Amino acid sequence: MSRHIYQHQEPFVFENGRELIDLQISYEVFGELNADRSNVVWVCHALTANANVLDWWPGLFGTDDLFNPNDYYIVCANVIGSPYGSSNPLSINPATGQPYYLSFPEFTVKDLVNAHQLLAAHLDINQIEVLIGGSLGGQQALEWAASKTIAINQLIVVGTNAVHSPWGIAFNESQRLAITADRTFYANHPDGGAKGLKVARSIALLSYRNYITYDHTQRDTDDNKVNDYKAASYQNYQGEKLVKRYNAYSYFYLTKAMDSHNLARGRVSLEAALAGIDCSTLVLGVNTDILFPIDEQKFIARHIPNASYREIESSFGHDGFLIETKRLSAIIHSFLENKKEYINELV
């Protein structure tokens, strides 16, 4: 593993026209480039993840896993807005000497992808063998493939969509309402909005899992209990866990970025944008995902010319893309080895 910081030397212009004069991108690389630079695997991470893909996607990435650093040159860049080293609302604004907080420019998935492209150019990478991402990471991967700013040989997206749904936007807005209801969010302090963030995370969990998951893992067996339920404790624990490693400002901005995802913006239509993606593509859905229902992945696969759809059975809902790594690995390995058999199957 090797962690790096790329400092962009020119102003970074966001989709909305605002600029950041000191864009910084934190990224990690695993493995070595081969002689013809044909072994690049680029990972786009999800909402609250970081650039250490071996840490948060074990079972798929690692020395004993499908994407082995001994075989591949694995790159994962921390997205703009995230608190793990890239420019974000808690970064210092050179104009004031204080953190940006809510003066940080709002950004979109297209902006995240444009930053990836800058990093790829910095690394002298002009082709990606495998571009992969799930959830917000899948949105980035699709946008990058549709933008055609780099050669992509194989695209793999999991639990994602071509445009963020009203359902997904509603979940994100409810989380932001929780954050902004915490008055400390406007106090311009690194811990601002922490109580709201805890609530926001508990809301998000309901979309990441589902009724079946909670029934299997959080059901109480004591019929006489009238308080201190396992499900309630779980919600509190998970909310506090995120507060310890994240901040409300990054979460607020990144949920807005997810809402912005729409491959049709600036293009003819969703269908046309997907039809323009010409690389071999594997689209994966989780059958119990209520945040990104499988119809969204089937839509993607139907409209990318060289795409195939595969479905993972799991009780873990949306989080299945992070948990069901054995099933993911088997399907992805088969795809990489037998692309011709996968392409243009009916969805």
TrEMBL record:
Pathway-wise, it operates in: Amino-acid biosynthesis; L-methionine biosynthesis via de novo pathway; O-acetyl-L-homoserine from L-homoserine: step 1/1
- Matching SUPFAM superfamilies, A to Z? alpha/beta-Hydrolases (SSF53474)
Catalyzed reaction equations? L-homoserine + acetyl-CoA = O-acetyl-L-homoserine + CoA
Q: Where is the AB hydrolase-1 domain?
A: 40-322
What superkingdom heads the lineage?
Bacteria
Q: Does the keyword Secreted apply?
A: no
User: What GO cellular component term, any one, is given?
Assistant: cytoplasm
**Oligomeric and partner information:** Homodimer.
- PANTHER family of this UniProt entry? HOMOSERINE O-ACETYLTRANSFERASE
Its protein name is: Homoserine O-acetyltransferase
Q: Tell me the organism.
A: Sphingobacterium puteale
